Amino acid sequence: MGFIQALKAIRLISKLEGGSVRERSDTMHKIASLGPDAVKPLIRALKNEDLRVVHESINALGLIGHESALEHLAPFTKDYDENISKAAKRAIQRIMNNSGKPHFEKDKTIH
Description:
By secondary structure, this protein is mostly helical.
């Protein structure tokens, strides 16, 4: 199941490069709903040149709430783009407060 979910995440992440703000937000929520299986593809997406992809990937990681994302989000808190840095700070806060929706248990492993 983890492999299939990761493939779905990769396919959805590719859709973050286009579309309206609403479409990208909807896609981000679909990715987040995949849970911990989407974390690794989202972390890879943080290296994307398209800031829209980076921004929505940060948001999805915050919603998933998996602690493994923290070290990858931390550098973005000092990003030159204010929207990226604010999103990273919110995502980290959400993970630290365990208030992400949907929330997944901290100890679940990533497949």
